[in-house]
Please model this.
Amino acid sequence: MARMLHASALPFSLVKNPYFRKFCLRLSNSKIAGYVPPTYNRMRTLLLEQEKTHVNLLLQPFRDSWKKKGVSLCSDGWGDRHKRPLINVMVASRGNSMFVKSFDTSGNIKDAEYVAGLFLNAIDQVGPDNVVQIITDNAGNFKAAGLSIEAKYAQIFWTPCVVHSLNLALKSMCEPNVKSSHYENCKWISDLVSDCDDIVMFILNNGKALTIYQNHLQHMLVKIAETRFASHVIMAQRLLLVKSALEKTVLDPNCKSFRKLNLESKADQVKECVISDRWWDKVEYFVAFTSPIYKMIRLDDTDIPCLHLVYDMWDSMIEEVREKIFEEEGLNIKDGESEFFNDIHNILETRWNKSNTPLHCMAHSLVPRYYSEAWLKSGGGIVSRVAPNEDKEISLNRSKCFKKMFTNPEDLRKINAEYGMFSGGALGFFSVSHVIEARVHEELLSWWASCGSETPMLQALAYKLLSQLASCGSETPMLQALAYKMLSQLASSSCCERNWSSFSNIQSVKRNKLASSRTEDLVFVHNNLRLLSRKSEEYKKGPSKYWDVDGDSLNVDDDYAEAFANIFLDDPDVEETMFSEDEGEGESQTSDYSKFGLRLLVAVIHGFAFDY
Model:
C-alpha cells in the first residue's frame, strides 16, 4: 500500500479516507480469489457513470426536504486549466450545498439571454416551486439574467452575493479611482497597501532576505490574491502579527549585502517603512476600521444560512466602522463629524444600495428577535433601532415580496393578516408571555416550530428563508410556512467559489486531458460524496474523523468541529496550504499558527451565530 502511495505521489491523508478504508476491509474480509482490478477504460466510463447514479440516489433525502425548506440556486463563472469558460450551479439549503451541474460555455457569448437559459435549465432540474432565490456575483450579464428569471417566475428572486459586494467595497477603499470623490481621503490607504505589498514581495522574491526573515520567525507572509476576498486586509493583519520579525530582519547586519546586489533603494524603502512607528500606526488603523467589514465577509463566506441577518449586519457593521474611525480621530460618536468616515460610509452605502433586495427585508422581518425590547434598546442610544414592521423601507419591500409570492388575492389577504398577528405580538398565542420572552433567546427554527402554527403560510416562508426555525407558529400557519423557507437561505455564492477548487484539484497537471463532461461527473461525485460523508457518524469519531480537513492533527474541539469542517468543504487549496500531514517533530510553527487562527475563526463564527 505504501509503495502504491509513494509511486503515484498520492497524499498520505488518503489512508484516512473512509471509502479507501472500506475498500481495503472488503478485500481483506471477502473470499474473492482471482480478483482483477477494473481496466483503465472501465474505471473512467462505466464505473464513473454507475457511481454518479448511485450518488444521485443517496441524495434523494436532501431533495425531499427542498419543498419545505426551499433552496438557493448559486452560480459562478470560472476558467479551467485549458481556459475553457465554465459556469457551475449549486443548490444550497440549511447549510448543505449540493453540486448540480456545470456548463461549458466555450464558443458562446455569455450574454443575459444565454446565461438565463442555463439558469432555466437548472431551475427545471431542481423544481421552480423549490427555488427561493438565485445568487450570483454583480456582473451585468448575471444581473440581467437573474432579473429575466424573476419576470418569468414570480416567486423566484435574484440576489447579488453579499460577500462579493463587500469585497468590491473594500477594493474601492484600497484602490480608489483618481476620478472618484473619495480619492483624496482614501489615497493613504492605497499607498499603505502598496507599501505592504512591496515589503512582502521584497522578502519573498529575494532568497537572502527570506532566509534572514525565517531565522527570526517561521510564519509565512501573505501576498495579495485577486481570487481571495479581502486579501488586502489579510495581508495587513499578517504583517502586524510578524512585526517584530520584520524589524529584526531589516536591522540584521546581513542586510547590508543588498548594496552589492543593486537592491539598495528597494531595501532602504522597505526598511524605512518597517522601522517607522507612524507607518505601523497606519497599519493598525487600517486593520481596525476594516475589521468589521472583514468579520462580516468571513461570516457570510460560509454555507451558514444568514440571509435573514444581512440587513441588520450591514447596519451594525457600518456603526462599528464609525466607532473605530471616530475613536482614532478623537471625535464624539454622537455629534462628531468626520470627512474620512463620510467617504467610507458613502462607499459602503452605495454597495448596500446595489446589493439590497426585497428578499433581505422580507427575511429580516421574520426574525422574532428584531421585535423584542431587548434588541430595540441594544443600540445604546447611538444606533437607532426600529422594529421591522415600523420601518418604511422594510415594510415596502416586504409588501413587494408578499405580492410576488402570493398571487392569489385570498392568500395575499391571509398572509398579511398572519404577519399582523406575528409582528403585533399582542394577538392570540403570540401575546403569551413566554412566547414574547422566547423571541430574544430561543433558536429561530425552534421558535417558529413551537409558536408559529397559527400562521402556517408565514411559518413555511420563514423556514425557507432562515435556516434555524421550527417551533412557534400554530396560530399563523401561512406565516409559519413562509418563515421556514425564508430563514433557511444563504446570502452569498461562496459555495460555488469553493467548488472551483474541486475542479482545479481534479483537473490537475497529471489529468489535464479530461473532457469537460467527465470533469463534471467527477466533481459531482467528489463534492456530493463529501457532503454525504459529513452526515455519517464515522465522520465525527474513529480513524476517519474529519478526514477531509485533517481533523486529528488539528484536534478541533467537538463544539466547533462541524462548523469548522463546513468552512473548508470543497476547498482543497485551503486544506493543502493550511494543514500539515506530518505530526510531531516535523510540524512547523506555520502549521501551529494556522491551527490557532482557524480555531479562533471558528470561535468568532460560533459567537456570531449565538448572538443572532
User: Anything to note?
Assistant: Strands lie at 71-79, 85-93, 96-104, 131-136, 157-160, 452-454, 470-475, 483-485. Residues 162-356 form one domain. The first helix runs from residue 2 to 8. The two ends are 49 Å apart (CA to CA).
